[in-house]
Amino acid sequence: MPTSRMLVKEIVYIPLGSTLRTLAYERELLKAASLYSLNGRVLNVSVPLNEESYNPERRQFNALILLDQVSRMKKGFDLCMGVTASDIYVPQMNFVFGIADVSRGCAVLSIFRLTFGRYEESQDIFRERVLKEAAHELGHLLGLSHCKDRNCLMSFSNSVLEVDTKKPILCERCLNVLKMLSE
Ligand SMILES: [Zn+2]
Ligand SMILES: [Zn+2]
Question: Which end of the chain is more exposed for a tag (fewer CB within 10 A), N or C?
């Protein structure tokens, strides 16, 4: 007989590159997991970014290659997210905050542009952004698509301004979709 414990999935965050800079946002990463009633865990390991992912012309790391790297480390974990403080991109875009592959249960999140700003910007806003974008990628991993509601966690953000606009919660429609997906 299945126990309720089996129903609780775990999201494992793997620092890619600087472990310290990822661990600095541990609380937000765990909070993102709890929004979906997932167990969250941040591995205290140091995993260098795959060298092949670095594009010297763009001075950025290719998120698709990092996604492959994360999927190779996934092993028995339910869901896995690589978290890096480096700038990442996908070929058709200048940059991305993160990407997710629902079929492999893997995602990559970059805190580079979320935690970059003027000195007078408070740490609180950085923390809030990391929480929102981690929760956004988790939403994808659980099967959610982008949402047109600019206030919803699942709306696509192309700038920190757009990240700051949305609330750290799902809209009614996304909540219902999530409920349907988990039934
Ligand atoms: Zn997205
Ligand atoms: Zn929504």
Answer: N
**Which ligand is located closest to the Cα atom of residue 140?**
1
Instruction: Evaluate whether 45 touches 80 at the Cβ level (below 8 Å).
Output: no
Q: Which ligand is nearest to the CA of 154?
A: 2
Residue 137 among the catalytic residues: yes
Select the more confidently predicted residue: 2 or 78.
78
Determine contact, residues 13/66, Cβ cutoff 8 Å. no
Catalytic residue among 128, 137, 172, 183: 137
Buried b / exposed e along 30-40 (16+ C-beta atoms within 10 A): bbbbebbebeb
Query: Average model confidence (pLDDT) for the chain?
Result: 93
pLDDT tens digits, one per residue of 53-105: 999 999 999 999 999 999 999 988 999 999 999 999 999 999 999 999 999 99
Question: Which ligand minimizes its atom distance to the CA of 173?
Answer: 2
Helix and strand totals (H; E) in the chain: 7, 8
Please tell me the distance between residue 156's alpha carbon and the centre of ligand 1 in angstroms. 5
